[in-house]
Specification:
By secondary structure, this protein is mostly helical. Among the domains are: 69-113 and 121-234 and 244-265 and 291-492, MFS general substrate transporter like domains (Growth Hormone, Chain: A, Up-down Bundle); 499-562, no CATH class; 697-814. 70% of the residues lie in helices and 1% in strands. Strands 1-2 form a two-stranded antiparallel sheet. The radius of gyration is 36 Å and the shape is elongated.
């Protein structure tokens, strides 16, 4: 239900905040050099020429990719202009529904005047064709000295002409259609005269590094205003009596349209020198020498044609054939606009990150389905198919608009007036709009009131037009494959981003953007990370620079949970920044991502004195693994015990399975009295012995729950000794008997006897060379622990450690000669 605007909605910036290049005289001379260089070769050559004029610090040479016109705007004035572009667009979004041919407001007004459906289609075709006048008017207006004033004069006249169609109510019925047609054709011609100037104005101001995101943000605001205003207007038209409703709507539109052009007068504009005279033919053909530009122009023209075939008939179909109220139509329109809001946010970030071409290639496919869904919407199915088609249309149109606009800004050359390029693009879309609307109107007139029967399904005349639109989409579907963007990823790669919990991602994304409190935004980021969708990565990375420490904390942890390899440089930067308050979280995230190239920065962080940072770096090194990380962690356990980080290092090193951790970890255990730190050290030792988190799982149980688990574990230990294939019969019998005595002592709470019998069993295993190195390490661990721990600790942590260590010992003896027992 949306069509392409008469011009790309946003334009790329060549504005970079660099050192001024002399005075205005030097600026003018540079612009002449750019123009002269561009006139001698194709656009690609002009682009390279602008890029190769590298700016060196301390010199007056222009920086690469920097428009001369943009250099004279300061940062503050550029930000001022960007805010005005959004406000101007919002005001024009209120003005638009009354004069946009495909809108329900204009369609309802036209029908109330007695204008027919086919006449509405011809209006759409004729006004669309007016966009082709930009190819002429852009050549003329580029010579103007005061373009801002010229924009205001022509634009204000455009608004007054278009809004004057309300006076058709005063005319006899036979004069109404010609009156409306003449005013709209004049207004659209004037609007298309302004459009290249305004588009080029924006192109010189919008910063290049936020091109797609600014496009998306501006479109988001404009669509949000449209959603709210269209709903209010629709409710008003449903309740207003007679023509009064339309009179008020057009009066508001006239005021807001003029208000937008008043804002144009207040918007900073880079000084522009009039272009030197060149032949019209040479000027108009110059952009078309750029093959990527030519292909994009043809694609946009054919995409607009396919949309324009059906666009004027959606509102007609709902009003006349489905008999829906304006409010109901507004609900469906707002479904489409709401989907566009989501699409602008989502696809803008994707285009910035993965390229524009794959976005276009992916979204042109669902765009084909939209008119087909309208075509098959019957009496029993339209309540489902119509809202689905609206949502799908909003997503497809918003994504293609953002991606095509951003791709255009990449293609047009830097450092020159690109108004002719924008005029050619708009002319192509205008021709497509004219041809599509004319074709749809002719088809509707040919059909009259007679529909088609398709496979037993009766189609109303507009639905036949919808089928023709769906067929026309096959041309842009093929052209999308030919678009040129060398640095873009593949469509399959972008499609892979759409995985995980997308509903959870959408909910938390909206919550993040609506929230004002840091805690709420942090919760939303946590939800986005837990959606496990690659689409969340851009917002998580962006939030590393948030003003809220809670948000920064969750952003770093979320990037780790998302395994975002693209975010590694940002996380390394945070880790290396001594002033950053999220260094531990950055280290933890790097460990979860597991990129082996970050070993060095993690090692530097590990060697610092901050205990929390040292612990996080140790865990990250353990998660990445490898010989280098292992040697670093195990080596840190030698020498004096660092009470602030020793437990964390043992816990981390234990994950690598290096048996040296067993002796070194238990050697440092007497330095700790805290139960929490002692359990962390012991769990690290048990993990080294192959028991993962079994110590934690068992020690966390209390009373009878723990006893209920210990008893079957001891029975299993006895059974493993009896069946150990690598031992002799006497050895098996002896070890099983001692293990049974340990179990008996635990059963009767005889902790001293348990320690003695466990020590005896460990001594006996230590004499069996074929027991295996893990079993021998387990025996040594039991002896070391029992010898150093006081009796009061044996009753609690001691019982658990002995049982877990015996489990490891028995399992590995059972596997020493080919046996295999699973870990619990």
């Amino acid at each position: 239900m949306q069509s392409l605007p008469s011009s790309p909605p946003d334009n790329r910036s060549r504005h970079t905040h660099c050192q001024r290049c002399g005075g205005e005289r030097e600026v003018r001379e540079e612009k002449r050099r750019v123009r002269n260089g561009a006139a001698t070769g194709p656009i690609e050559g002009a682009t390279r020429e602008g890029s190769e004029r590298a700016c060196r610090p301390g010199t007056g040479d222009p920086k690469p990719e920097t428009a001369v016109m943009a250099e004279v705007l300061s940062r503050q004035r550029a930000a001022h202009a960007l805010r005005h572009f959004i406000l101007i667009g919002a005001l024009w979004s209120i003005y638009g529904p009354g004069v946009f041919i495909a809108s329900s407001v204009f369609t309802g007004y036209a029908l109330s005047l007695g204008i027919s459906e086919s006449q509405i289609a011809f209006l759409a075709a004729g006004t669309g064709l007016m966009g082709a006048t930009q190819a002429v008017t852009a050549y003329w207006t580029r010579r103007a000295r005061d373009r801002r004033r010229l924009c205001f004069i022509i634009g204000a006249t455009d608004i007054c002409c278009a809004s004057s169609i309300i006076f058709a109510l005063l005319l006899p019925p036979e004069f109404r259609f010609p009156f409306v047609a003449v005013l709209l054709f004049i207004a659209y011609t004037l609007g298309n005269t302004v459009n290249p100037m305004f588009a080029n104005w924006m192109a010189t101001v919008i910063p290049e590094d936020v091109r797609a995101t600014y496009v998306a943000r501006r479109m988001f605001v404009l669509t949000l205003v449209s959603v709210a205003y269209l709903f209010v207007v629709s409710r008003w038209l449903d309740t207003a009596q007679g023509s009064l409703g339309f009179i008020l709507v057009y009066a508001i539109g006239w005021l807001t349209g003029l208000g937008g052009y008043v804002m144009v007068l207040l918007t900073p504009m880079p000084p522009v020198e009039p272009e030197e005279p060149t032949s019209y033919g040479r000027s108009i053909l110059s952009p078309l020498r750029n093959r990527p530009f030519a292909l994009l122009s043809v694609f946009l023209g054919m995409w607009t044609l396919a949309m324009a075939i059906a666009s004027p008939f959606y509102s007609v179909f709902m009003l006349r054939y489905l008999h829906l109220s304006y409010t109901r139509i507004a609900v469906y329109s707002n479904l489409s606009l709401g989907a566009m809001l989501l699409g602008y946010r989502m696809f803008g970030a994707l285009a910035e990150r993965h390229g524009c071409k794959p976005i276009v290639k992916l979204l042109i496919v669902p765009a084909v389905l939209v008119p087909f869904m309208w075509a098959v919407a019957g009496d029993g199915t339209w309540p489902v198919l119509v809202p689905m088609a609206c949502v799908l249309s909003g997503l497809a149109v918003s994504g293609i608009q953002v991606a095509a606009s951003a791709l255009l800004y990449k293609i047009v050359p830097a450092g020159r007036d690109n108004s002719l390029s924008f005029a050619i693009i708009t002319s192509c879309t205008a021709l497509g709009s004219f041809a599509g609307a004319m074709g749809g109107g002719l088809l509707k007139r040919l059909l009259g009131d007679q529909g088609w029967d398709l496979l037993g399904h009766s189609l109303a005349p507009p639905q036949v037009v919808f089928l023709a639109s769906a067929a026309a989409y096959l041309v842009p579907l093929l052209l999308a494959q030919l678009l040129v963007e060398p640095e873009a990823q593949t469509a399959v790669g972008v499609l892979a981003q759409f995985r995980g919990n997308l509903l959870g991602l959408a909910y938390n994304y909206i919550l993040y953007n609506l929230a004002r409190e840091g805690r709420t935004r942090a919760v939303a980021l946590r939800g986005m990370a837990r959606s496990h969708s690659p689409l969340a990565v851009a917002k998580l990375a962006e939030s590393l620079d948030d003003v809220s420490p809670e948000v920064r904390h969750e952003a770093a942890l979320g990037l780790g949970e998302a395994r975002a390899k693209d975010a590694v440089p940002r996380l390394v930067e945070q880790l290396a920044d001594a002033g950053s308050d999220i260094r531990p979280e950055a280290a933890e995230a790097l460990g979860q991502i597991g990129d082996p190239t970050v070993i060095d920065p993690l090692q530097k962080a590990f060697e610092e004195g901050d205990p929390r940072l040292r612990a996080s770096a140790a865990m990250a090194l353990a998660e990445i693994g490898g010989p280098e990380a292992g040697e670093l962690l195990v080596g840190a356990l030698e020498g004096p015990v660092d009470r602030a980080s020793f437990a964390a290092v043992v816990d981390a090193a234990g994950r690598l399975g290096d048996l040296r951790v067993v002796a070194r970890g238990l050697a440092g255990l007497p330095h700790f009295d805290s139960p929490v730190l002692r359990m962390q050290i012991i769990n690290g030792v048990c993990r080294t012995l192959g028991e993962r988190n079994h110590f934690y799982q068992l020690v966390s149980r209390r009373g009878l729950d723990r006893s209920a688990l210990v008893e079957p574990m001891m029975k299993r230990i006895v059974r493993l000794f009896r069946r150990a294939p690598g031992l002799g019969a006497s050895e098996r019998t002896e070890l099983a008997a001692v293990a049974q005595e340990v179990a008996h002592a635990i059963e009767h709470d005889d902790i001293g006897a348990m320690a003695d019998r466990a020590r005896l069993l460990a001594d006996r295993v230590a004499t069996i060379d074929r027991a295996g190195e893990v079993a021998l390490a387990g025996a040594a661990a039991i002896r070391s622990y029992v010898d150093q721990v006081p009796a009061d600790r044996l009753a609690d942590e001691g019982v658990v450690f002995v049982v877990v260590a015996l489990t490891s010992l028995a399992r590995h003896i059972a596997r020493a000669r080919g046996g295999k027992e699973p870990i619990l």
